[in-house]
Amino acid sequence: MSMSIDDAIEVIECESGGRHDAVGDGGASVGIVQFQKATFNWMKKIAGKPNYSWKNPIHQLRLMTWAVDHGYGNHWTCYRHLKKKQVYAILKNPPSTFYLEESIRYRPERYSVVKETRRWN
C-alpha cells in the first residue's frame, strides 16, 4: 500500500508545519518530516538509498513515504496519531460487514486494528 498524498501532507503539517528548515526535539529532529539523523541513516541504508542526504527535503519526503509503505510509519508521532484518528473514524461509523471484509481482503494492512473486531452487525 502506498502512502496517500493526503496522509503525507497531514504528517508533514503536523511534524514541521510544512517547513523544510524546522528543528524539533531539542535539535535532534530536522526537516520537513522531522527525521533524526540516526533514524534517517538507518532507513536510507535498509531502503537502499545510500546517496540520500539527511537535510534534503525531497530525500526526507521520499524516505518517509518508503518507510510508511514498508511498515515503519510508527517512527513518527504524527503518523501514529493519523492512523489512530482513521481507526476511530471507522469504529464510529463502521462500514457494512461485507464492505469491511472486502477491504480487509484487498488492503489488510489498512484495517489491521479493526480486523479483530470486524463483526459490527
Question: What can be said about this structure in brief?
Answer:
Helices cover 55% and strands 5% of the residues. It has helices at residues 5-16, 37-47, 57-69, 77-92, 97-106, 112-115; strands spanning 23-24, 29-30, 35-36.
Describe how the helices and strands are arranged.
Blueprint: H1 5-16, E1 23-24, E2 29-30, E3 35-36, H2 37-47, H3 57-69, H4 77-92, H5 97-106, H6 112-115
Antiparallel strand pairs: 1-2, 2-3
Give an account of the 3D structure:
This protein is mainly alpha-helical and 121 residues long. The chain has 2 domains: 5-76, no CATH class; 82-115, no CATH class. Helix content is 55%, strand content 5%. It has 6 helices and 3 strands; from the N terminus they run H-E-E-E-H-H-H-H-H. It has helices at residues 5-16, 37-47, 57-69, 77-92, 97-106, 112-115; strands at 23-24, 29-30, 35-36. A 3-stranded antiparallel beta sheet has the order 1-2-3. Helix 1 packs across helix 4 (77-92) and helix 2 (37-47) packs across helix 3 (57-69). Residues 97-108 and 110-121 have low confidence and may be disordered.
